[in-house]
Design a protein that fits this description.
Zinc Finger, Delta Prime, domain 3; 392 residues; 5-stranded parallel sheet; 7 strands
Length: 392
């Protein structure tokens, strides 16, 4: 009886599920934009064809197919699939899955894939606790993360995982997915009748969704509900979402990538790019104090003696952030950003302190001349030194 109810629920869910879920690829051949991994000559496809499923971590931006790939890996290998999210699950959940996998292996001989989404959300001790699970071979661990695994995953665990990196989907790949979803009469929008998807709508979705397939399909579905006569145009997309997508993570790769681009643009004397990076950080909610500190460091490290006023202005911008905050401090940050980008550059301060610190590190501290101290006899030593200078 339960099986009948479950089957009916699955059938009903397939009809009411979001478009992005309904259009999820059912085979490797339906995956777009990741041919380097799952194409005919793809690295992962070849390994699976050889009957090998390694413990792995799948890395990539949101909406590039990490969950889909994990599910297809389990299906291709004929393994059972258990899914957990590190956001909500803990080690107790992992142990439960491992015990169930051990029972399954003993009773049916079938192995289990444990898909652990957002694996970087596990802290260091939780990741360490996964090591015996991975080494025992009862399950195959497939982790997924949007973060840099070489930073967010412990080295001991990472050394036991094969890394597969998914690329952000390009415009042609997203376009193909959108058109497929519009034309599909079984799972897509055309299941309720023919739909016309105009190129202007595709362009508008691409501007807002970036390389996120899930976001693009979600926006397409929202636009279809506002379309007139089942014709999806740019106006429907704009009505469904009037703001372009902003990809940013204050604690992740985007944070560091933007900061790097900001500094490198000023270093290259490119004020427009530097100001654009500043704007992207501010609009995305970056901490202005972080930006001000980086600007202060740049003024001292890169501009330096070539234009000493840069350090004073950067200090003033730092104070404006501290005393005013957003949105007023953005003007000071913009002013000093342009000033530093256009200023001549000098690394003299960096070279000077590095040279002398290296000398201290290698040669130890030197004796301080008596004339440079306040000890007894120092004043006389200074007079003697001055007399020698006059006679030299």
């Amino acid at each position: 009886m339960n099986d009948l109810f479950h089957a009916a629920a699955d059938e009903h869910r397939a009809r009411i599920a979001p478009l992005a879920d309904r259009m999820r690829p059912r085979s490797f051949s339906e995956i777009v934009g990741q041919q380097r991994l799952v194409g005919d000559d793809g690295r992962l496809a070849k390994q699976l064809a050889g009957g090998h499923v390694p413990n792995m971590v799948i890395v990539g931006p949101p909406g590039t197919g990490k969950t889909t790939l994990a599910r297809l890996v389990a299906e291709a290998a004929g393994m059972a699939l258990e899914e957990l999210s590190a956001v909500a699950a803990g080690l107790a959940d992992v142990r439960r899955v491992v015990e169930e996998a051990r029972t399954r292996l003993g009773s049916t001989g079938r192995q289990t894939v444990l898909f652990l989404d957002e694996i970087h959300r596990f802290n260091r001790s939780q990741q360490d606790a996964l090591l015996p699970t991975v080494e025992a071979g009862v399950i195959r661990l497939v982790g997924a993360t949007t973060e840099n695994p070489y930073v967010s995953i412990n080295k001991a665990l990472l050394s036991r995982l094969v890394t597969y990196e998914l690329e952000p989907l390009k415009r042609d790949a997203i376009t193909a997915l959108l058109q497929r979803a519009a034309d599909d009469t079984e799972r897509g929008l055309a299941s309720g009748g023919a739909v016309t998807l105009e190129q202007s709508a595709i362009d508008a979705i691409l501007e807002r969704a970036g390389g996120d397939a899930r976001g693009a399909l979600t926006l397409l579905e929202a636009a279809s509900l506002l379309a007139t006569d089942r014709v999806i145009d740019a106006a429907a997309v704009e009505a469904a979402s009037d703001r372009r997508r902003i990809d940013y993570d204050r604690a992740g790769d985007q944070h560091y990538d933007h900061a790097s681009a900001y500094i490198k643009s000023m270093r290259a004397s490119d004020p427009e790019t530097a100001l654009h990076m500043l704007a992207q950080m501010l609009v995305s909610g970056e901490d202005p104090m972080f930006i001000a500190r980086r600007l202060f460091i740049f003024a001292a490290e890169d501009v330096g003696a070539a234009k000493p006023n840069a350090l004073l202005l950067a200090g003033a911008a730092l104070e404006s952030v501290r005393s005013l905050g957003m949105p007023e401090c953005k003007f000071a940050l913009a002013q000093v950003t342009r000033y530093c980008a256009e200023a001549p550059k000098s690394r003299q301060a960096v070279d000077d302190i590095s040279r002398h610190m290296d000398a201290v590190t290698s040669g130890g501290t030197a004796d301080i001349p008596l004339a440079l101290t306040n000890r007894p006899g120092a004043q006389q030593a200074r007079r003697d030194a001055a007399r020698l200078d006059r006679h030299s």
